[in-house]
Amino acid sequence: MSALPILQLKAVGKSYGQTRVLKGIDLDVMRGEIVSLIGPSGSGKTTALRCMNFLEAYDEGEVWIKGQLLGYRSAGRSERDRDSDSDASIAEVRRPVAMVFQQFNLWPHMTVLANVAAPLVLSKKIGKAEAQRKALAALQRVGLEHKADVYPARLSGGQQQRVGIARALAIEPEVMLLDEPTSALDPELVEEVLSVIRSLAQDGMTMVMVTHEMSFAAKISDKVVFMEAGQIVEAGPPAQLFGNTRTPRLQQFLKPWFDRSLSVSPSTEAVPAQTSTETDRSHA
């Protein structure tokens, strides 16, 4: 891994009117790292994720992508100074980052192949034939090349989310942001999406993921971040957060998951799973 973070948040804050939803978030994401954001609903996880690629304009602090400041001309100013050509500069800085949304966001009037190819044509100005070639390769990556000519309404929820992941993969990102990628799915469809994410992790893709899938986060993550009330309460490797929790609030948050774990101790579940994931990725 590089010595410098590929994605970095420094004292990031965000308010909606008088409500401060992020309160000085600091986070370093290294190349090839899997970071899971967990916490109760309304804790600021999705807002933090959306600030990472400026889908939400943060009010305080700094977001850096590959050493470039995102969204503003200069760092450390109390009054922010957006560029007159800010849309173009924002797009350039966040080019290495792709987003996977929880609600799929597929165009219903377009085929699966067209949905995946569209960002390449519209944003990257790639020719139609080359865009379709890249789109088909991305669909193969998630096991859906046989659905290329199908419309989204004919797909299951799990398949639609896999198309969303393929659309993100098609632009060849260096970082993927995933916002609760399984939350809109029936329980029986969750595993097919988690399997794709697991495969991406084994290939070394850098990912930041908001998730309520605690077992999956424990197994796949290099770092887990627990948020509440717009702040990071605890962060560290899965073995720490799931096996040696330091804060009473995190213990309380995880208790229902521990109770459902059928007498498997948190330390024995988290530590071997993390070691297995790291071994898989080292051979990818």
Describe the structure.
This protein is of the alpha/beta class. It has 2 domains: 7-96 and 174-282, P-loop containing nucleotide triphosphate hydrolases (Rossmann fold, 3-Layer(aba) Sandwich); 103-173. The chain is built from 10 helices and 10 strands. The protein has helices at residues 45-51, 86-93, 112-122, 128-141, 157-170, 187-202, 214-220, 238-243, 248-260, 266-282; strands at 7-16, 19-29, 34-38, 60-65, 68-69, 97-100, 175-179, 206-210, 223-228, 231-236. The strands form 2 sheets. Strands 6-7-8-3-9-10 form a 6-stranded mixed β-sheet, with helices on both faces. A 4-stranded antiparallel β-sheet has the order 2-1-4-5, covered by helices on one side. Strand 7, helix 6 (187-202) and strand 8 form a beta-alpha-beta unit. Helix 3 (112-122) crosses helix 4 (128-141) and helix 4 (128-141) packs across helix 5 (157-170). The protein is globular. The relative contact order is 0.14. The model is unreliable at 266-284 (pLDDT under 50).
Please specify the SSE layout and strand pairing.
Layout: E1 7-16, E2 19-29, E3 34-38, H1 45-51, E4 60-65, E5 68-69, H2 86-93, E6 97-100, H3 112-122, H4 128-141, H5 157-170, E7 175-179, H6 187-202, E8 206-210, H7 214-220, E9 223-228, E10 231-236, H8 238-243, H9 248-260, H10 266-282
Give a quick precis of the structure:
By secondary structure, the chain is of the alpha/beta class. The protein has helices at 45-51, 86-93, 112-122, 128-141, 157-170, 187-202, 214-220, 238-243, 248-260, 266-282; strands at 7-16, 19-29, 34-38, 60-65, 68-69, 97-100, 175-179, 206-210, 223-228, 231-236. 40% of the residues lie in helices and 21% in strands.
